[in-house]
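Help wanted!
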Amino acid sequence: MPEASPAIPPPPRPTPTLSGLGRGVVVLPAFDEERGLGEVLAGLRQACPSFDLVVVDDGSRDRTAEVARRHGAVVLRHPFNMGYGAALQTAYKYAAREGYPVLVQLDADGQHDPAFVPGLARHVLEGRADAVVGSRFLVGEGYIPPFARRVGMVLFGYIASVVTRRRVTDPTSGYQAMSARVFGFLQTDAFPADYPDADVLILLHRAGFKVEELPVAMRLSPTGKSMHSGVLRPMFYVFKMLLSILVTLLREPPRGLAR
Amino acid sequence: MARRALLPACLLLAGCYADDAMPLQQRMVAAAVALLLTLTILELVRKRRLREEYSWLWLLVGVGIAASAFVPFRYLVLLANSMGSDNPPAAIFFLGFIGVTLLCLQFSVRLSRMTEQIKNLGQKVALLEAELERSRPPADRPAPTSGDDPDAGDGPAP
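Answered by r_m:
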C-alpha cells in the first residue's frame, strides 16, 4: 500500500512529454509483487505510452503474472524462482530477441518513479551514453537508505569510481536504461547473474561501454521489504560484491564492443 | 592344491607385517570399510542410483582406504616423514581430508555448471512460453478450448 511517499523528490518530476520516444521496452523483474505492480505499470503506461512493458515473473507465488497481464504487459514467467539477476537477464534475452533499440529497467515494487523513464531512455537513444544509471544521490537528499545499504553504496561507489575513473554515486541502483548493444552483451554468460550490482558497472566499463548517471527520485520501497534486511545478509552482500568485483577485475577484459 | 597353498601364503603375509606397529584389528577394520564402500558403490551404479560418471571418483576413495589398510607400517612412517610428520595416523588423516576437500570442490564446480545450465533452461522456458502465448488466439480465455481451431497460429501480435 503506497502511503504518502516520505521522499522529498529533489530532481523535479518530469512532466510527460508528447514527443514520440519511438520503440522501446521497459522491464520489471518481479517476485511476489502483486500489490505494487499494477500502479507501477499504470504509471509506465502514462510516462512512456510507446514502450512495451515486460514483467519477468520470477516464480511468484501470488498473482503477479495476472496483474501484469491485466495491465497489458508481456509476462515472462520463470518456472521457479531464480533470483533478481537471472530475471534481469531473461529480460535482456527477450529484448535482444525482439530487437528493441533501448531497454529501461526498474524495480516492480514502486520505489522507482516511472516518470524518469523517458529521460533515461532518451539519453541512450540520443547516443550520449551506452548505459544510464538513475542515481538517487546526484541531487539533494531525497532518499536515505538503510544503514547496511548505505555502507555498501559508499564502499562500492568509491571502488566503481576509482575503476571507471568517473564519479559513481549510486552503484546499486536498479533503475537503468541501456542500448541494444549493452543488453546484447549482458544477455551472454559475461553477466554476473547471481548478483548483478556494482560489478555490472565495472564490467560494462571494462567492455568499453560508456556509463553515465542521471538523477532520479526514489521512494522507500512501499511494500516495505528490502533485498538487504537483517544483520548477516548485508554483511554477506558486501563480502560477495567485493569478491565479484575482484573477480571481474581479474578476468580478461570482455569484448563487449567488438561485434 | 589351492588349499594347501593357503597356509604358507598366510604365513608369508603375516611375516610381512610381523614387526608391524599397526594392530591387525585396525587393518581389518580399514579393509572391511573399503570393501563395504566399494560394494555399495557398485550396487548404486547397478541400480542406476549413481551415475557411472561419478562412481569412479568414489571407487578411487575405496581403493585409497584399502591401500591404507595393506601398506606396511614402515611405508606409512616414510610417507609421514616425507610430509614432515612423525605421526603416521595424523598424516593419513590429513591426506584423506585433502582428498575429501578436493572432491567437494569438484562437486561445487559441477554444481555451478549445472546451476548455469538450469538458469539458461528456465529462461528459455520463460521466453518460449511467452512466444507460445502470443501465437495463440486472442486472450481473455486462457483455457484452451478443445481443438476447434488447432492451427490458429497467427493471432495479432500485441
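OP: Thanks! One thing I noticed: The longest helix of chain A spans residues 232-250.
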